[in-house]
Specification:
The chain is α/β, with parallel strands linked by helices. It contains five helices and nine strands; from the N terminus they run ββββαβαβαβαββα. The protein has a four-stranded mixed sheet. Helix 3 crosses helix 4. The two termini are 18 Å apart.
């Protein structure tokens, strides 16, 4: 693998990380959920709720699970989905609440009638980063792609 896209939450020793996009995490829930009127919540405020999560092995779900454990309790996952669309559909049907990137919530809010609540946690304010090891060793098409996406040489 020559290059990739990761969250700035990832430890990547030996790789150059270049932030290119905000990727803040938010809570989503059905509009009739009792917390749907909140402007912002902390993870500790919702740890007692049923959650809809992503499948085992999802880097994002592993990250969220670790944050929940750090907050004192594992998430009560009612169901795990393989896609963000599936997760949003289950949340819309009241199966539980979810944590997704803001752009996912924005794309699905109208379609599924979801309520988006800010997640007031420093760890939820992430950046997506391009990553690579050595710019000069990248194939020309990869350098071109990374440059187009906002990457700069600066090795």
């Amino acid at each position: 693998v020559e290059a990739g896209v990761v969250s700035d939450a990832v430890e990547a020793p030996g790789l150059r990380l270049e932030p290119v996009e905000r990727d803040h995490l938010v809570l989503i829930m059905a509009p009739e959920h009792r917390l749907a009127g909140a402007r912002a919540l902390r993870l500790a405020d919702v740890l007692h709720e049923a959650f809809v999560g992503l499948t085992h092995g999802s880097a994002l779900q592993d990250y969220i699970d670790a944050q929940a454990r750090d907050a004192g309790r594992a998430l009560a996952l009612r169901i795990r989905m393989t896609t963000f669309t599936g997760l949003c559909e289950m949340v819309a049907h009241g199966v539980g609440i979810g944590i997704v990137p803001q752009n996912v919530a924005s794309r699905n809010r109208r379609r599924h009638g979801l309520r988006t609540i800010a997640l007031d946690e420093p760890w939820a304010r992430r950046q997506l980063c391009l990553c690579w090891k050595d710019w000069d060793s990248l194939a020309a098409p990869m350098r071109s792609l990374l440059s187009h996406l906002g990457g700069t040489r600066q090795d």
